[in-house]
Amino acid sequence: MLHSPRGRTRRRREHAAPRLPPLRIGEALALRWDGVDLDAGTVQIFATVTVDLDGRSVRQEHTKSRAGMRTLTLPRYGVDVLTRRRVEAAHDLVFASHAGTPMSEGNLRIRWRAAIEGSDFEGLTPKSVRKAVATELARKLSPAAAQMQPGHASSFVTERHYIEAAPTPDVSMFLGRPGLNGH
């Protein structure tokens, strides 16, 4: 149970967003159950949610770029969370408002923070998770693998804005030794 600032108690719900692959927020909000294959453990990304001129969240039937249209494999815990969420689903959108319309980005962020509050993940944002996953994939597999997960058209964007530079090793014990620096 969580306690609100006004002293009311509210139940913490398990939210799937922190357990999905590194999706853009709009891609997560556009997920429909017909694009989720729980048996195969995959999600199809083929749409996004944007804000229309009236300030409403609307689903558009394409992603930010052609590279954004992809099928991603879920980790086991992501399948488990979505399976439980599917049982309770009343709408075709995975992240629907109570009215069945796309949830707003602001509401997803509120739920995200509530879901990770008090955990080791507190303070992370969807973007920081996307960057961390890209960095890990680049280091363990390749920059090309890191590019495909977040749906980037080229590895340039991934390498420049998502993959963190490897820490510079401490070489201070070698500096000033004979044979180094031309001495």
UniProtKB/TrEMBL annotation:
Alphabetical keyword list: DNA recombination
GO biological processes: DNA integration; DNA recombination
Annotated Tyr recombinase domain residues: 1-175
Name of the protein described by the UniProt record: Tyrosine-type recombinase/integrase
Molecular functions (GO terms): DNA binding
Transmembrane recorded as keyword: no
Organism superkingdom: Bacteria
Species this protein is from: Pseudoclavibacter chungangensis
InterPro entries: DNA_brk_join_enz, Integrase-like_cat_sf, Integrase_catalytic
